[in-house]
Amino acid sequence: MKAYRAIVAAMKIIEGKHAEQYSRLWDFVEEIKKTNPGSTVKIKLDELRFQMMYVCLGACKEGFKHGCRALIGLDSYHLKSQQGGQLLVAVGIDPNDKTWVIAYAVVEMKNKNSWIWFLEILVEDIGIINQHRWTFISDKQKGLIPAFLAILPDYHHSHAITVINYKKDKLEYYVDVCYSNVIYLETYGHLIQPMNGMSMWKVTENPLIQPPLYTRQHGRLKKKRNKEAAENEKEANPSQNEATNRSGDIPQPQ
């Protein structure tokens, strides 16, 4: 317990309190824009209380637009902090078939409204115009399908390999241009620049942001297991079970 308290005290000295970090979000935004030109950072507030934050670094954006395939994966994760919340992530596939982080957002809760807010900025950020050439991968997160219908109503899924085999074409004709040497160099020609620590950020004149109120996230629904026949009999005759238990407490003669 003492070790845990020492770790908490050390982290407060190094990183500061959570509320203090929220109050410096505007300074964080300016630091990103200064060190990584072309980045998109948006913050949504409710009377100066934090609600959502979207981040797309300039190098990640340009690298994805120049060399990655028209494929985006969407997912979300729980944040383990005092304020809780969810992390929404959009990733692509680079010429090395590795994950390429495009953008992410911190939101209070994963629902239709938060996904719509995230997708609206993402679509504008990477310039999705012809929706038919884009493919999205997800596990149908809560609120994501209605958000797709609202923001990307014309996107569709297709089984490309089946069509190619039916047409008896060569697969080489359908290899994406992202695998060429020229596109590879364009993809990795954009670098994420290092940022200064919080103590070196320039203090802006924007009003201080308050941390979000903690919102309990919805857990998984409880599932009822199939009980054995003996368990059902015990529930059907509780008086008999009580009598059996009481008789078991009576000491037997030696």
List SSEs in N-to-C order.
Answer: HHHEEHEEEHEHHHHH
Radius of gyration, in angstroms, nearest whole number: 27 Å
Please state roughly what percent of the residues sit in beta strands, choosing from under 5%, 5-15%, 15-25%, 25-35%, 35-45% or over 45%. Answer: 15-25%
Secondary structure: number of strands: 6
Spans of 5+ residues with little confidence (pLDDT < 50)?
none
Dominant shape: globular
Helix content: 25-40%
By secondary-structure content and strand pairing, the structural class works out as alpha+beta
Per-chain topology:
Elements: H1 2-15, H2 18-22, H3 25-35, E1 40-46, E2 49-56, H4 58-67, E3 71-78, E4 86-93, E5 99-107, H5 112-126, E6 135-137, H6 144-151, H7 160-167, H8 181-187, H9 229-236, H10 238-249
Parallel strand pairs: 3-6
Antiparallel strand pairs: 1-2, 2-5, 3-4, 4-5
Helix pairs in contact: 4-8, 5-6
